[in-house]
Amino acid sequence: MPIIKSDYQGPPFYYFNKHIETIVPSLLRKIEGVNYTRERIDTPDNDFLNVDWIKNNHSRLLVISHGLEGGSDRHYVTAMAKLFASKGWDIAAWNNRTCNGEMNNTKALYHHAASYDLRSVIDHALETGDYKDVCLVGISMGGGQTLRYLGQGDEFPIPSEIKKAVAISAPCSLQESADTLNESSNRIYERRFLNKLTKKIKAKAEQFPEIDVNGIDDIKRLSDFDDRYSGPLNGLKDAKAFYEYCNPYPYLEKIDRPTLILNAVNDPLLKGDCYPSHMAEVNENIYLEMPNRGGHVGFALPGSEFTYSEMRTLEFLN
After folding, report:
1. Are 95 and 49 in contact (CB under 8 A)?
2. How buried is residue 104: exposed, middle or buried, by Cβ count under 10 Å (0-12/13-18/19+)?
3. Can you tell me whether residue 280 is helix, strand or coil?
4. pLDDT computed for residue 311 by the predictor
5. Can you point out the beta strands (E) in the chain?
6. Dihedral-angle region of residue 85 (phi above 0 means left; psi in -120 to 50 means alpha; beta otherwise)
7. Could you list the mean pLDDT of each consecutive 10-residue stretch along the chain, which spans 318 residues?
8. CB 100 within 8 A of CB 158
9. Which residues face 41 on adjacent strands?
10. Distance (Å, rounded) from C-alpha 313 to C-alpha 296?
């Protein structure tokens, strides 16, 4: 589909730049009234995933995939869950391995290419529930996982119940997204991710003493962390190979369900092919919306509990 014009007029006036648009909701936004029921499901490699449900016996299910170092408790997940649950949907908000509560069993953590875990969640939901329509929404890293899942239909047939999807602030070109962390103005994001991931590797080393954490606190760049840990722990040589493996961009052309990609032009963590204009032109199933404002997972609306991205997701999937 051609690139579509956005109706988003921007955040409140005091969100005066892209970093404020990104950071303020992350730190201060609170969503009340969301009560999950947690289920642990097994994975084919003898690990587990925690899935947080809102079940009201609806025939429509929304599967929500969170961002890097996020979880089902993040504001952008709970808000999406609250909005859709009030509109006649069941919710499955799943947590990537090591996210939101428990260290996983296997040596590897999670990553942008963990569409296999999303597949496990969807397959479990369809096996245990009576859902006629299933839609997907992924935010940031979860958007990349969702796009990869949808583009793997040749390898893993996608159930007919999967109808539509939305990817918000999605790093469609992972290497280019990672490159944005080299910008001095983005160091705050890099430090935040690095601090959290370092703690997880230390915890993982307690399970698997062969993981060498000597000098881990001296690592200052996420790319160096990925060189030493993210790549090798997933059987890849280094950060470059890791980014290439995890990159969702090659899968976009194979997506065969209507899919909205909502990426703000002023997103500090996206650039280049993270705005896949060419793919939107050649694949009739991709709807690309690029509002000028929004930051990264921001999209605040004046006087509204919900963001533009959440309201737009509901509109698109309905």
Report:
1. yes
2. buried
3. helix
4. 98
5. 37-42, 48-54, 60-65, 90-95, 133-139, 162-168, 259-262, 286-289
6. alpha
7. 91 95 96 98 96 97 98 98 98 96 92 98 97 98 98 96 98 97 94 95 96 96 96 94 97 98 98 97 97 98 97 97
8. no
9. 49
10. 16
Q: How far, in Å, CA of 81 to CA of 86, rounded? A: 8
String of DSSP letters for 58-109 = -SEEEEEE--TT--TTSHHHHHHHHHHHTTT-EEEEEE-TT-SS---SSS--
Q: Which is nearest to 309 in space by CA: 29, 16, 13, 101? A: 29
pLDDT at site 264: 98
CA distances from 36 to 52, 73, 93, 198, 222 (A): 5, 10, 9, 29, 33
In this prediction, residue 1 carries a pLDDT of 66
SS3 134: strand
Please state the φ and ψ torsions of residue 261, each to the nearest 5 degrees.
-110, 120
> Long-range contacts: 273-276, Cβ < 8 Å, 24+?
273/172, 273/173, 273/176, 273/249, 274/170, 274/171, 274/172, 274/173, 274/176, 274/177, 275/172, 276/172, 276/173, 276/249, 276/252
How many CB atoms neighbour CB 190 within 10 A?
20
Rounded to 5°, angle at Cα 166 from 163 and 170:
145
- Measure the CA–CA gap between 44 and 23, rounded to whole angstroms: 37
The Cα angle at residue 255 between residues 94 and 108, in degrees rounded to 5 = 40
How wide is the angle at C-alpha 52 spanned by C-alphas 51 and 56, nearest 5°? Answer: 120
Residue 86 to residues 83, 166, 235, Cα–Cα distance (Å): 5, 19, 43
Query: CA 265: distance to chain centroid?
Result: 18
For residue 226, give every residue at least 6 positions away whose Cβ sits within 8 Å of its Cβ, in sequence order, or none.
178, 238, 239, 242, 243
Token pair, residue 269, equals 């963590």
Number of DSSP helices (H) and strands (E) in the chain, helices first: 11, 8
Look at residue 240 in the predicted model and tell me its pLDDT: 95
- Between strands 162-168 and 90-95, the pairing is unpaired
What is the DSSP secondary-structure string of 97-114? TT-SS---SSS----TTT
